[in-house]
Target: TRI36 ligase
Amino acid sequence: KVAIKGIERELICPACMELFTHPLILPCQHNVCHKCVKEILFAFEESFADGGSESSNQSSPRTRISASSVDRIDRINRSGIKRNSLTPRSTLFPCPSCRRDIDLGERGVNGLFRNFTLETIVERYRQAARAAIAIMCDFCKPPPQESTKSCMDCSASYCNECFKVHHPWGTVKAQHEYVGPTTNFRPKILMCPEHEMERVNMYCEICRRPVCHLCKLGGGHANHRVTTMSTAYKTLKEKLSKDIEYLISKESQVKAHITQLDLLLQETKCNSERAKQEASQSFEKLYHVLEEKKSAAFRAIETSTNIRLEKLQTQMEEYQGLLENNGLVGYAQEVLKETDPSCFVQTAKQLHVRIQKATESLKNFRPAAETTFEDFVVDTAKQEDILGDLSFHSNGLEVPAINEEQSRMYNKALISWECPEKTDSADIYVLEYHKLNKEEESVTWQKTEVCGKSKVLSGLDDDSSYAFRVRRYRGSICSPWSQEVIMHTPPAPVFSFLFDDKCGYNNEHLQLNPRRTSVESMAGFPLLLGSERLQVGCYTTLDYIIGDTGIARGKHFWAFSVEAYSYLVKVGVVPSNKIQKLFHNTHDVTSPRYEQDSGHDSGSEDAFFDSSQPCTLVTLGMKKFFIPATPAAPKDPASRVLPLPLCLGICLDCDRGRVGFYDAGHMKCLYECEVDCSGLMYPVFALMGGAAVHLEEVLTAKYREYHDDI
Model:
């Protein structure tokens, strides 16, 4: 037999940390008191109503909801509670044992089974713990007598006399089941919580819970594999018995592990004391350095003070000598009494020089020493920052890594990072960044604290490079810094616009999304009908679409992406005075002779490029970026073909009359040329065949949260 007192740990509710009271079995197979389940759900509902405030989590002194549950409240609120009126509402419950959000279904707490077996074991434990405390009869007149038996049908305890009175021979009550004195009254038959009038007689192997025949016929277990209760009882009992026998047979191994763990506990305590001593020694060294610097500062101030006081004292004595009948003036007055000319001249000459100096110093009075000690002010701002960052590095915390694929630089900077661990145990992250400047000798990192795994930064300079790094904190312990990642900001402020669905928009060949941020060319039946009129060797027409906002002056940048399956896309800028020519171009059908990037030497390509093209465009398609064939471009056609970047950007400088085409992921210029900026300049796109273009979305402070919700 296993001693009842040795299993107390298994009888403690993980929510209230007390012995179970009417425990319920959660779908994750963990047990929680019935009262605790209701209190936790009530606390979470209050958290939803109050916006997840910490004060609402303290509504019940019985349950202990950790601070980390606040983030889980928000996650539950986003993922499971918000549903429309047509969808059955399901209740999510945060299990205090496995820390997972458990779906309790539509019935919530009412759909959970009461664990009568665990309740019986708890009652046995209580009886063993209070063996000296008797259970009194519920029907005796005061003073009550000690009970001798309890009726499971009446849910009451009786002494011998009261039991005979309330259960007379020859009546129905005489057939009631009675046991020894107890306070744990359990029903004879386990009823289904979903169909309260039906007893459970089957076991669902998928959900691992008892069910009734109605659950199997038309309930939530209709398509599940079930077995009879007797078969499940026999199977589970055999498995449990075998596992218990195996554990008992490994008792020596368990004891060895316990001995090893006890040694590890002692070793941990010793290492903890050693770590404290090492930390104390480190801080003592800092104290010693500070004390030395303090003493040196005091000595320097004291020396300077003595020198200044001596100078000021000497100057004061000199000025006191200028008073009548005192010092230099008194001596001069005595010299004036000399009547012998030769003796007077001999003495007065030197005296007159001294009197003149005293007169000059009186006219231009200046203290002999400064009274301020500004030169001795200790600037500790930098040292304070360093000491503020002083923390303990732990090998237990994995180093986060900045995810360059998910990070973006556009109108703002979105920095995302990941941790190697599957579960995040960090309390907070610290993200630091600084601008790369070769002229600056010292680097000043800007710091921001983040609760999640991404941060949107604003206020960065255009056309600059920044270094980013991140570390994670758990309490006072932090991980080492992640590897620095360098990212480049756009060469100019970001220009926002949408596709224009009115000016020249061909809705037969092009399709816009509702937000007008994506356009797709549809190579369907209308395009085939149009191509029927074309001659051999010609392609189909280009379908143009422009932005809905123009640029008059300044330098601007915008970015977009082209789908990998796109056959032909042209991008660039067009002046307002040539938009009509763009949509009504006489060369409506492009052919190899008129295509500037075709590679065919027709002899008129340059002329066509200069005079006939109404806008400045570059060609994209088939995962390639084609540099236009200009006199300055490489003569080899293969060297003018580059891989198509994932994200492209265009930088228009109206003041200089130049346009550049960029790899927006690395902010690298691929091609730049002159452009006529005489009028309003509009972004322009041309698509042919199957192709799609998506405008880059501007970043906002809630950008990452919005996409996480999606």
User: Anything to note?
Assistant: The mean pLDDT is 78. Residues 427 and 458 are 24 Å apart (CA to CA).
